[in-house]
Amino acid sequence: MKKLFLLIACCLTISTYSQTDERKWNIGFYGGITQYNGDKGMNFYSTDQPATYAFASVSISRYLGKHFDASVFFTRGEIGNTEKRTSWTKSTDEPNHFRVRVNTFNMLLRYNILAPKWAVRPYLYLGAGGIMHEGIYSLKDKERFDYALPSFGGGLNFRLNPIVSFQLEESFMYTTADDIDGDVNEANDGYLFHKAGLTFNLGKQKDTDNDGVSDKKDKCANTPPGVTVDAVGCPLDR
Q1: How far apart are CA 176 and CA 200, in angstroms?
Q2: Which of 21, 91, 179, 186 has its CA 20 to 30 A from that of 227?
Q3: How confident is the prediction for the chain on average, in pLDDT?
Q4: What whole-number distance in Å separates Cα of residue 103 and Cα of residue 199?
Q5: For residues 27 and 16, what is the distance between their CA atoms, to the nearest angstrom?
Q6: Could you read off the pLDDT of 167-196 as tens digits, one per residue?
Q7: pLDDT tens digits, 95-107
Q8: Comparing 179 with 56, which gets the higher pLDDT?
Q9: Which range (36-40, 81-85, 127-131) has the least confidence?
Q10: Average pLDDT over residues 153-179
């Protein structure tokens, strides 16, 4: 029940949205649930896992152009598996549990498929980073560092106004190790993060003549104080 409340709280948490050329920096917070894929279970998009593991993250992003952003993400949460062991031929009652806390650091390059003028913007991203694993009731050494290579994913930004948006994202992360779950058999262990949150652009538009229209959109600079202007900063006819 506590994890369910944590998930709901995380989904309502504030986070960052892809910024614009007038608001180049942003910072944000995300939340959601995690799923594991490895030797103890193939759980990506599975609904059979009885336990739910949650996470929260914070990001700092920088606008690079109409279609590109650079971001740094920090994530803290848990990954685990509670399914019974399944071999290639049959299922058994042998315990197949593991659980670790993950702290991740990732540097990402995001490609926004549509320009900033669109209210709904799909995007893709690719990056790499590191993962600090903390053993809860697995990992003999209790703490260890591995690399996240690769990290990739995609999502949707829904703009509510020029500053606030709602974001949904699917984030995949693969470790450079295959024994986080205690087994070394096939491919390296992988994690999936289902993210949701609200987003805020940061920064202040430069308005030299204080007419309420930013310099980038102002076609009539140096408007005298008190003069009413139109959407592009030019005085209205009276």
Answers
A1: 33
A2: 21
A3: 79
A4: 22
A5: 5
A6: 999 999 999 888 887 777 777 889 999 999
A7: 567 888 999 999 9
A8: 56
A9: 81-85
A10: 89
CB contact burial 188-206 (16+ within 10 A = b; e otherwise): bbbbbbbbbbbbbbbeeee
pTM here is 0.76
Q: CB of 199 within 8 A of CB of 28?
A: yes
Residue at 2: amino acid letter: K
Kindly give, in sequence order, each residue whose CB lies less than 8 Å from that of residue 167, ignoring residues fewer than 6 positions away. Answer: 15, 17, 30, 155, 156, 157, 158, 195, 196, 197, 198, 199
135-139: long-range pairs with CB below 8 Å, 24+:
135/100, 135/101, 136/78, 136/80, 136/99, 136/100, 136/101, 137/97, 137/98, 137/99, 138/97, 138/98, 138/99, 138/100, 138/180, 138/181, 138/182, 139/100, 139/180, 139/182
pLDDT one-digit tens code per residue, 105-143 = 999 999 999 988 889 999 999 999 999 998 766 666 678
Q: What sign does the dihedral 95-77-160-107 (CA atoms) show?
A: negative
Nearby residues of 109 by Cβ (< 8 Å), 6 or more positions away: 68, 69, 70, 125, 126, 127
Element (H, E) at 35: strand 25-38
Token pair 């971001």 is at which residue? 71
Q: Is 144 helix (H, G, I), strand (E, B) or coil?
A: strand
Q: What is the DSSP string of 38-61?
A: ETTEE-TT-S--S--EEEEEEEEE
Q: Tell how many helices (H) and how many strands (E) occur in the chain.
A: 1, 10
